[in-house]
Write a sequence for this structure.
């Protein structure tokens, strides 16, 4: 076997070892996400729990809709700060269409972390995006 062929074969065999490895996407950067200020709904009685608007119940949850969420109540306990995660951006169509003035919706990456925190700290003094993460797998 000529030298050139052996050299080429060696390079092709060793290339996966010397090429930079592809890194996995961090969990907080996967899927589509919204940070929202929404009303709490429900009476708190059996069968009608208090929960944030737009959060799916067990009956309407699917892999195509909202797959994960986290919430923190506001300081006055009348509203909730909500972190939603979905595989499909269309899962957020209803909340993005909500034009009530008290509802706030932020898309991480489109609005800066500082702007999101500054607005939501009006409703919860200790709010921090660093402590408000949802991991969806």
């Amino acid at each position: 076997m000529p030298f050139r062929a052996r050299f080429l074969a060696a390079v092709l065999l060793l290339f996966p070892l010397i090429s930079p490895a592809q890194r996995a996407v961090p969990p907080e950067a996967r899927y589509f996400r919204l940070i929202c200020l929404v009303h709490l709904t429900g009476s708190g009685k059996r069968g009608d729990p208090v929960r944030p608007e737009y959060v799916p119940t067990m009956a309407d949850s699917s892999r195509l809709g909202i797959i994960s969420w986290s919430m923190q109540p506001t300081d006055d306990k009348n509203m909730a700060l909500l972190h939603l995660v979905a595989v499909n951006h269309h899962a957020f169509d209803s909340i993005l269409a909500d034009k009530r003035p008290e509802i706030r919706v932020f898309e991480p990456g489109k609005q800066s972390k500082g702007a999101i925190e500054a607005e939501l700290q009006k409703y919860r003094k200790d709010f921090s995006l660093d402590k408000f993460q949802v991991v969806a797998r």
